[in-house]
Amino acid sequence: MVAKIPQLDIRRFDRGDDADRSAFVADLGDSLRTWGFVGIRGHELDEALIARAYAVLEGFFSLPTDDKMALHVEGGAGQRGYTAFGVEQAKDASVPDLKEFWHVGRDVPEGSDWGDSMAPNVWPDDDLVPGFRDTLSELYAALDDLSRRVLRAIALHLGLPGDYFETVVDHGNSILRPIHYPALGGEQGADGAVRAAAHGDINLITLLVGSGEPGLQLLARSGEWIPVSTIEGVVVCNVGDMLERLTNDVLPSTIHRVVNPPEPWRSKPRYSVPFFVHPNSEFSIETLSGCVSDERPNAYPEPINADAFLRQRLREIGLG
What we know:
The protein contains 8 helices and 15 strands. It has helices at about 10-15, 20-35, 45-60, 65-70, 130-155, 165-170, 240-245, 305-315, and strands spanning about 5-10, 35-40, 80-85, 100-105, 175, 180, 195-200, 205-210, 215-220, 225, 235-240, 255-260, 270-275, 285, 305. Strands 1, 2, 3, 4, 5, 6, 8, 11 and 13 form a 9-stranded mixed beta sheet that branches. A 4-stranded antiparallel beta sheet has the order 7-12-9-10, with no helix packed on it. The longest helix is centred in the middle third of the chain and has 26 residues, at about 130-155.
């Protein structure tokens, strides 16, 4: 039998009694410690909003290449706007991924003290892709809210106050990244290229609004690649490298990939919408004292600024 990541109903945490909340926190922590992944039900994301998002994304990615490239931010490390097919290459991979994507970041209030580390968003004209900006902005806000609910439970699991992450992520450079994996034809993949080569995410946690197509896999502790089903109504959450470092590897950032599927999915496009939750750019990623012991010495004795960590990793994947 193929192992599956647990699926937990976050309403147990949001609305349950003390016993329900404690059980959810324990189950969440166990899943993240074991797999680095968990499925979240009861998240209350509007299914109509998700459907609208997929519709506007299909409209955008079907535009002519010149129209999309007009929304590429030169020198922006792919952090806003459009990044073309075949640009991003996973760390240590020999060939680029078979994907293109769009980035939406946090809107920075004019004159803010922390806007220097975050570029403004760019958007296609509404007559080019009607509803694109409004829909993705609404989805960004909904996932930002969900991420804080999940982080509250993670904080409690780590023995921290429930609101620990509130001031860690309140102006973080979190990214909504809709991805288009075009239909694969002919000899694509013969050189070893896949839709997304094996990698760990850079950030604290990722929330994935996925599609129903197969392809996403995680690398289990056993060394086996385990399929991660993206089931309707479930948001997949995984630990990123920043949270792994912050917790001294207590919560592991699990390597995952998106492989090229067989037919009938190979000749069809695939869309997915991950939301990468980043700490505030000035946040110092310094190992939590509660995650260090004689049995688990500090593997990261030198703190690193979150923005510096991000930019280092972007260079490693060909975006910096």
